[in-house]
Amino acid sequence: MNITLKIWRQANPEDAGAMHEYQVHNVSEDSSFLEMLDILNEELFEAGEEPIAFDSDCREGICGQCGVVINGVAHGPEVTTTCQLHMRSFNDGDTITIEPWRATAFPIIQDLVVDRSALDRIIQAGGYISVNTGAAPDAHATPVPKQNADRAFEAAACIGCGACVAACPNASAMLFTSAKVTHLNMLPQGQPENLMRVKNMLNQHDAEGFGTCTNIGECAAVCPKQIPLDVISTLNRQLGKAVLKGV
Ligand code: SF4
Ligand code: FES
């Protein structure tokens, strides 16, 4: 496949940035999207040009490090992570635009790399438990209703990639925050600080500059782990309880 790429280049956080055009030739349809960028970077390196900066780590859809906006869609045309997207999702002769996540709370560091430490600070505000959970036999001896275990597991699948923020017109991180709250608040071990967790994580969410959720649903549509939109309702119910109890 021969592909034209239009890629956002920005040397540093202060640089204005602009789209630059590149050609890549003889790309296998079995290449991953990031391997295609690796090929382009090798060519840029050999030509003495600055390679394109982008994030990745596991390249297996697990770590949440990768993530770019491809043709206007966070993670591109498939519901998966950017690293698990393959060139067979495109056609020979296509022009593909590649941009970084765009949100006030995700400042651009260079090219396609953004600073997502705001998500880490939301976790630090309440995404933990204070009880001693003991060893594996103790965990096995703690009964958890099946529907709660399933709900917690579903929410725990969030890999913190930030696509939900990039897709949301309000740049809200409510899908991420709700997933992190839900996976702990559904389990017995998460109960001691459950309402404080909701309040503290939401306060940090707002302090980081993420926007308000207005139920548009773009977040869940692009989420590579298919976190359901109704985790936000779960969080809102618990926020209501926290307000009623004066937490
Ligand atoms: S909720 Fe989905 S899109 Fe948002 S950070 Fe988690 S895995 Fe990524
Ligand atoms: S590089 Fe780890 S999820 Fe994509």
UniProtKB/TrEMBL annotation:
One of its GO terms (biological process) is respiratory electron transport chain. It is an enzyme of class 1 (oxidoreductase). It catalyses: a menaquinone + succinate = a menaquinol + fumarate. Keywords: 2Fe-2S, 3Fe-4S, 4Fe-4S, Iron, Iron-sulfur, Metal-binding, Oxidoreductase, Tricarboxylic acid cycle. Pfam families: Fer2_3 (PF13085), Fer4_8 (PF13183). Binds 1 [3Fe-4S] cluster. Binds 1 [2Fe-2S] cluster. Residues 149-179 form the 4Fe-4S ferredoxin-type domain. It comes from the Bacteria. Its EC number is 1.3.5.1. Residues 1-102 form the 2Fe-2S ferredoxin-type domain. GO terms for molecular function: 2 iron, 2 sulfur cluster binding; 3 iron, 4 sulfur cluster binding; 4 iron, 4 sulfur cluster binding; electron transfer activity; metal ion binding; succinate dehydrogenase (quinone) activity. Its cofactor is [3Fe-4S] cluster; [2Fe-2S] cluster; [4Fe-4S] cluster. Belongs to the succinate dehydrogenase/fumarate reductase iron-sulfur protein family. This is Fumarate reductase iron-sulfur subunit.
